[in-house]
Amino acid sequence: MKLTKLLLPTMITSVALSAAVASEPTAKYPEVDMKAARALGDAFASVAERVKPAVVSIHSSKTVKLRHLDLRLPFGDDFPLHEFFNDGSLGNPLRTPQREYKYHQGGLGSGMLLDRDGHILTNSHVVSDVDQIKVTLADKRSFEAEITGSDPRSDLAIIKIKGQVPNDLPVVELGDSSAARVGEWVLAIGAPFGYEQTVTAGIISAKGRANVTNSEMLQDFLQTDTAINPGNSGGPLVNLDGRVIGLNTIIATSIGQNAGVGFAVPINMAKQILPTLLSGGKISRGMLGVAIQDLSEELAKQFKAPNTKGVLVTQVTVNSAAAKAGIKVSDVILRYDGKPVEDVNHLRNLVAATAPAAKVELVLLRDGNELRVNAQVGELAAQPALAANKSDQTAEGMDLGLTVEPVTAANAREYGFDQGEGLVVTDVEAGSAAATASIQAGELIMEIDRLKVTTPAEYRQALANVKDTALVLLKTKDGGSCFMVVRVK
Question: What kind of fold does domain 286-379 have according to CATH?
């Protein structure tokens, strides 16, 4: 009986609700206009159908030889029995006899067919330092390939199909990356994780990205949220016209796969050197011979610059194009060959794109005054000169908190600096102004507030004139240099 009482109200309520629902008219939903969505989908499909046949998968392999297989206990040198297991007199029971071992490393990337002669554009890192290259076309045909030209500075390479080249090769159409707009749709085509002929879609997230990878590489990347993963490298980034505007190259991720931030080398950078790469020639780039750093608001005030546009010269190489043109440390480079200089990366790319021996005009700011100089650009060596990579910082403290000593004939080799070049930092007080500004032991103090310091007396005199901030010209242990703004009391 109790069960019936509990269920009956529920049953009555259900019936009432059912009747109420039945009595209402059938709901009408607004018709959604799907034309725009279908048109975008059709555009994606059309571009994919057009470009995919010219995209190839690149398989590389390399044989690595080892003299022995070193098997050790998974403990560090502080393991109590370390001496027993690794003492040469007792032998190492965990080490196999000396012999040669071989193992094969494999790599996978992507590329695009440029012409019907079988030339393929890809990333340099996809095909560098390998023994064998095989390309697989969209129709599954496979061919051996060889490197025609490679340029690690731009991470670009041309490979070519070996032997008889088919006469029916499809090719890509190159676009204009400078015309790409942030927010426009793009497609990436490649072989992520080995899944060949994969198409992903996204937008251009940003242009002109730099400081993405090591400092030796020229960087002016297109950034995209199009899914790019291992295996996409060297594949095309195309716009909705089906034209290639970039080569998918790098991803920013902490997990080794797509995190929505990918970078592509703009196709216009490739166009500049394609003729040389196709002919197997040497890529020559200009060099000015300066170390430079970006201007912060604080540095702009120190050097009387109207804003943070331009770059600050922190080092001038002896006998370089800059030295011969009269450029000096503390100059601010405002314009290069008629173009306003935005920042360090912008000037670096402008100079690199200049042919060696070309004559250019530079507009400088020196002590608040503009002046023009003419320079004959030099040639960038195989290993680029080190540029400053420290950003200026501001620090609080009673003094700099440094212990310094002169560079003498006796210690010049130890520190790696020239005699009389400046004062070597031998100790940095914890929590001091210098420590907060990231000045480190082993670096060289060359100037304080534009005064050269080579002796402790000059150092003390320079600090005695400091009021609120000290502008320190620092030479780092790797040979680069930069200005640091250190605030003192």
Answer: Pdz3 Domain (2.30.42)
CB 445 within 8 A of CB 460: no
Closest CA to 483 of 348, 287, 332, 364: 332
- List the structure tokens of 431: 């929590």
Tens digits of residue pLDDT in 430-484: 878 888 888 888 888 888 888 888 887 788 778 777 777 888 888 887 778 888 8
**Does the active-site annotation cover 151?**
no
**Residue 478 known to be catalytic:** no
Q: Which residues contact 305 (CB under 8 A, 6 or more apart)?
A: 295, 299, 332, 365
141-150, 207-216, 233-242: range with lowest mean pLDDT:
207-216
User: Same fold for the domain at 37-68+100-281 and the one at 286-379?
Assistant: no
Q: Is the pLDDT of residue 119 over 90?
A: yes
Q: Which CATH architecture has domain 37-68+100-281?
A: Beta Barrel (2.40)
CA atoms within 13 A on the CB side of 59: 12
Alpha carbon distances (Å) from 95 to 73, 303, 419, 425: 10, 62, 48, 44
**3-class DSSP string for 201-249:** EEEEEEEEECCCCCCCCCCCEEEECCCCCCCCCCCEEEECCCEEEEEEE
Secondary structure of residue 370 in the 3-state scheme: strand
Does the active-site annotation cover 233?
A: yes
Q: What are phi and psi of 66, to 5 degrees?
A: -125, 145
Pairing state between β 142-151 and 132-136: antiparallel
From the candidates 150, 233, 432, 481, which is the catalytic residue? 233
Q: Which of 59, 119, 125, 346 is flagged as catalytic?
A: 125
Model confidence, pTM:
0.69
Q: Please tell me the distance from the alpha carbon of residue 259 to that of residue 168, in angstroms, as a whole number.
A: 38
Per residue in 38-86, pLDDT tens? Answer: 999 999 999 999 999 999 999 998 876 665 545 444 444 554 444 444 4
Q: What is the 3-state secondary structure (H, E, C) of 101-121?
A: EEEEEEEEEEEEECCCCCEEE
Give 332-384 pLDDT, tens digit per residue: 999 999 999 999 989 999 999 899 999 999 999 999 999 999 999 998 875 44
- Ranges of H-type helices in 142-191: none
Could you give the CA distance from residue 392 to residue 293 in angstroms, rounded to a whole number?
A: 9
Nearest to 455 by CA among 418, 411, 408: 408
| Options 155, 225, 331, 392, the catalytic residue | 155
Q: How is the chain split into domains, by residue range?
A: 37-68+100-281, 286-379, 402-487
CATH number belonging to domain 402-487: 2.30.42.10
